[in-house]
Amino acid sequence: MKTYQTLAILFAMVVSAVQGFSISATGGSSFVISQRPRAAMPTACPARTGASSLQMGNQAKFGIFSPAVYGAKIVLGGDKLNKIRGKAISLHSQYIGDFCEWAGAYHLRTRLIKKAKVNGDTLGFLV
């Protein structure tokens, strides 16, 4: 318990010492504003086209783990690999949900799961 209190106090001291986390009237941090001038914020949001930035398996990027995935596909076979991959994705999504519930930020669950998929694609897990 004492370790958690020490960490919490240390975190509070670091956050209070750094003024880069303060939010200005324009929505950015004062640290960023002091480094470079900001362009004027557009008043209207661009319309969505409906196309998702997420890609499925056949269109995935080649990343650092892609050779391992291809090797696993050869050794295990496509069906077995997809079963293991589905189970891993399911467990990871469950852990993200548990973390969001623990942190009191359950509203961020969907965003974090999408971010995990984008990161998995970038690293080459989805080839």
Helix-strand makeup class: mainly alpha
Helix content: 55-70%
Sheet of most strands = none
The global form is: extended
Low-confidence stretches: 17-24, 28-34
What is the count of DSSP helices, taking H or I runs of 4+ residues? 5
Strand residue percentage: under 5%
Notes on the structure:
About 10% of the residues have low confidence. This protein has about 130 residues and is mainly α. It starts with a helix and ends with a helix. The chain has 5 helices and no strands.
Short description:
With about 130 residues, this protein is mainly alpha-helical. It has helices at about 1-15, 30-35, 65-75, 80-105, 110-125.
List keywords for this structure.
single chain; 127 residues
SSE layout and pairings?
Elements: H1 2-17, H2 30-35, H3 66-76, H4 78-103, H5 109-123
Helix pairs in contact: 3-4
